[in-house]
Amino acid sequence: MSVLRRHLLATTLLVAATPMTAVYAQDAANPAGTLGAASTAPAQNPTDPEAQADAAESVADQGGEIVVTGSRIRRPDLESASPIAVVDSQQIQSQGIVNTQDLLQKLPQVGIPGLSRTNSNFLTSGNGVATIDLRNLGDSRTLVLVNGRRFVPGVAGTSIVDVNNIPADFVDRIEVVTGGASAIYGSDAIAGVVNYVLKTDMQGIVGRAQYGLTSRGDSQNYTASLTGGTKFGADDRGSIIANVTYSKDLGLLSRKRAISAEDCSAAGCGPQSYSSYPAQGRFEFQNSNNENGVASNEGGYASNLFTFNPDNSVVTGFPTGYGFNRNSVRRISTPIERYLAAGSAQYRFSDAATAFVEATYAKTKSSSQIEALALDSQTDVGVGYGIDNPFIPLSIRQQIAARNSDAIASNDVTSIDFRRRQNEVFSRSNRNDRDTMRFAGGLRGDLGSKWQYETSVVYGQLKDRTSSQDIDITRYANALDATTDAQGNIICRDATARAAGCVPINLFGYNTATPEASAYVRAAVPRAVAIKNTQFVASGSVSGSLFALPYGDVQVALGAEYRREKSAENWDELTNAGQNSGNQTPDTVGKFNVKELFGEIDVPLLKDISFVNSLSIQGAARYSDYSTIGRVFSWNAGGEYSPVRGLRFRGNYAVANRAPNIGELFSSASETFPTVQDPCDGVTATSTGTYDVACRAIPGVASAISRNGTFEYTLADIQSINGFNGGNRNLQEEKGKTLTFGAVFAPDQVRGLSLTVDYFDIKLTNAIDIIPRATSIQQCLLTNLPQFCNNVIRNTGTGFIRTVNAQNVNIADTKTRGIDVNLRYGRALGLVADDRFDVNVLYTHTLRYQTQSDPSAPVYSGVGNIEFGSVFRDKVNATATYGAGPFSVNWTATYLSPMVDTVRDEFAESSEGLDPEIIAHNEIKSRIYHDVQFRARVGDTREMELFVGVNNLFDRKPPKLEDTVFYGSITGTTTAADIYDPIGRRFYAGAQVRF
């Protein structure tokens, strides 16, 4: 896009016919964007408001039409059919942004991301992935596009795009459409659309380098980028532009911040909250003849427990302070390393045919860092140490001999169980390696004077491998069972295991496991998952004037699209079999295709008459046929009315849909044996409990009562209950209904001023969720509804529950509504020659955010509550830019209103015992984050730019929310690290050079 057209977009978007908010923070010396100086600019002064208005009218007169996200109909005045917020390349660079997620998170319309570098450290895959969540409705309900076309998903089995793959320096602007847009773009757009519009037109080369670190000297990041473009062919018919980017963020360890340096619990932070799985081990005498399996302390013994000092001398019991501080090795943010390449080219053969091609490649490396595995001998391996194990310390062997010979059977020791951190044995931290590629190409052109067409194909592929070390529990059990041979050497007892290389393992104390033993118990194949997502899209559309009405042409767009998606998630064999330290996890493979027809219409009804400057209506519809769920229909309708120039009213109603994704449909069912309670247990012929009447209506229960007087489970009956977790191929689409209406005020009398106020109301129904097993059992008895009873399978003869499933179902609801306000003003102040001041304020006031997981569940309000949605009542993003000559300064402030977090329910009964300081943390005060950047252009032609900046200028601390106690706390951060800044003040500096 040329300098003029980029500039016009910045200055005229806010007078569109539908809700819009522009985030353009123009620089006085280069308002069109950082590449503007390398392009051909018109003669007007682009900082002069009158020149801007004249240029806008000139483009309209010359038919300078473009397509803005939210509609396929071209409009000379840059109107859009949907609410839009726009971020341009200058806004990205004015805040030192390396990943666009960081900038979008500041917008009031954008909610808490499902995945980011500060909330993904503890995931088994997806560490460091960056996603976008509009209106807090979920990442899977936000559709991310590049140049108006789909991008291959970055998470297995979903439609979620990893925006790490999009180089910030290659972005011309980001258009954010809020509200249902499925009629325009298809599934996944219930919350809206984020469209990355890449640079397409440039002459010259621009290089940029940036370095950043915190005020504490950590969390360094590096970025280097090179962007170049040229035109070629007769009359500059062809153009090509490309970008290569390298960036690296070193992440941040939890111990580097005082708030998260130590483990925390309901007892507070410090040694009293350290893990009972220490690096030196916590050991307990067992007696297999006792009911609880634990040896007693009869006979005057102080404790069944023992541990070790740092010198590996034995300590009786397990005193406070001997636990393990997990936060000492955890991360607040994961490191990310990216190698990015992107390019596009186009060639105009004639007005009727322009060929275009786009290509993107991204290699992303990330990792997690979490504490070594907390191994429990019984639950994880199934065996502990035998009392004849030669590694047992002498003093412990002597105590065992004394216990077993004192004629007190209850304190006998038959084995030693343990809890021990596997620090020197293996690391379970993940290593991620992702390769993403995408190609798009097609033809577009004019079909006569009033019609245009476009055809395109898109192919994308993600390959993601996540791996970590793990153990083989069979080998581990062999290594625990040791004896001595005739020469006194300690060996594995099992001869077959010895022949296979078994090395006995010593876990009694710090660093006692030898490298050879550690190598033996480690799995021969790492715990790993290989993910492959593929996407193919073919589409074609035409748009133009259908016929003329007295007040303008009826504009339409018609098209068709075919899309095919496939996702495969393949785990290693030990994970499939449940023979390592993790849960048994099956592979997931699924695919679907969808065929779609879509159309739009824009009808001008009145124009330039008394009390009507303009009046029009718009509509759109999409018919989709999925190979998985069948036929789906989406539509929207709206209109705009302008009584006088400078004032517009507009409204829109949309019905959007989201088809279930591959993971929700095809995740393989994995069996589990849950602990559940049947409310019918103990029911008699006369009992009057809440569920008793419904229980007696079950034939098997009634029969048991008539025979035995009561219906009762044995322990064996309870332990035999199984269940399955996983996908559900009977899912249907989610449905979203969005209403928006508002006004734009942009008076001619105050040039450069615009104010937009918009109301939104979104209702999400039939949302996909998982019903807790207890809820399914209880509500089946109370309501007999199939959404609950289909999950509960009873033995028809006995009435006993045999299976309780927890699979995906269409059952949840979410409702949100609020008000968006955008105030924008810009003008030359005249303090010095060629100066300019611009201010832009984005504000969202959320009136309601309610969720209900199923019809029986309570309705929770998430406004101002981290536990139930983390939606701020008020969120404001304000940007001010002043430029004069070669200098400019940008100041951005982000306001987050107060929040409430809630101490977890399991602590509710003992709240009196909680640390008073923890209870006080429930009330989270409002916060304002300030970012500032200074930029200077040097050289005779100002071909070089130098910039320095500070984010979180006043080092605003995050609220302290103890891990495991508060709902919003991210493990290892002791705060809601994906909501508040956990890193602190950050400096950066860089340079940009044009050639």
From TrEMBL:
Keyword Transmembrane: yes
Pfam (any one): Plug
All residue ranges annotated as the TonB-dependent receptor plug domain in the record: 79-193
Ranges of residues in domain TonB-dependent receptor-like beta-barrel: 414-953
Keyword Signal appears in the UniProt entry: yes
Signal sequence annotation: 1-25
InterPro entries the UniProt entry points to: Beta-barrel_TonB, Beta-barrel_TonB_sf, Plug_dom, Plug_dom_sf, TonB-dep_rcpt-like
Topology in the lipid bilayer: Multi-pass membrane protein
Cell location: Cell outer membrane
Keywords of the record: Cell outer membrane, Membrane, Receptor, Signal, TonB box, Transmembrane, Transmembrane beta strand, Transport
Region of interest called Disordered, as start-end residue ranges on this chain: 35-61
Family listed: Belongs to the TonB-dependent receptor family.
Name of the protein: TonB-dependent receptor
Organism: Sphingomonas longa
